[in-house]
Amino acid sequence: DGGITQSPKYLFRKEGQNVTLSCEQNLNHDAMYWYRQDPGQGLRLIYYSQIVNDFQKGDIAEGYSVSREKKESFPLTVTSAQKNPTAFYLCASSSRTNSYEQYFGPGTRLTVT
Amino acid sequence: EDQVTQSPEALRLQEGESSSLNCSYTVSGLRGLFWYRQDPGKGPEFLFTLYSAGEEKEKERLKATLTKKESFLHITAPKPEDSATYLCAVRGLNDYKLSFGAGTTVTVRA
Questions:
Q1: Which of residues 37-76 of A touch B (CB under 8 A)?
Q2: Which residues make Cβ contacts (< 8 Å) with residue A82, sequence separation at least 6?
Q3: Which tens digit of pLDDT belongs to each residue from B12-63?
């Protein structure tokens, strides 16, 4: 079955530690995205990538980093510079030839204490 | 900057009680308006894409419509399994990304 996988589902870290969230897709989509979701707020875009080896900052990129070495993979690193990292993180992908409808993974809930 | 406002924030319905959710938007050249359903603790599930004013799409008890300034998601004779948060998003003319509203949480009681 084609789809997007994110791992782990739950992640706990101590303040000051960097953490990397995994996102893999087998939909053959060119574009991939990372969003953050907080209670009562819409999804906010962190980073996006239209093609391999290229990515752009979204609306809230500070304290985050990404890489896009393979078409299937778009990992997100939450660095210690992110002031409020506890949130629900969602990865999505879309085809550049299909109206950019985005399909989402199941999400990773990160808790930093 | 693209903006999306959804109302109401929350909607409580009795099973069978039809209602509508609103999504108002401002965007520089609409390239698509998207509706998603999200269950608690899960990723959003794609429902519909609308492209131009007057367009309508249906799926089971859901029907989405679009005007030049807003979209409506009509829920006809809802069932408890329709309980979820419904998200609206838009894509502008020169954007590869989507701008999302905060969502409407629908609770349907049996």
A1: 40-45, 48, 50, 58
A2: A62, A63, A64
A3: 999 999 999 999 999 988 989 999 999 999 999 999 999 999 999 999 999 9
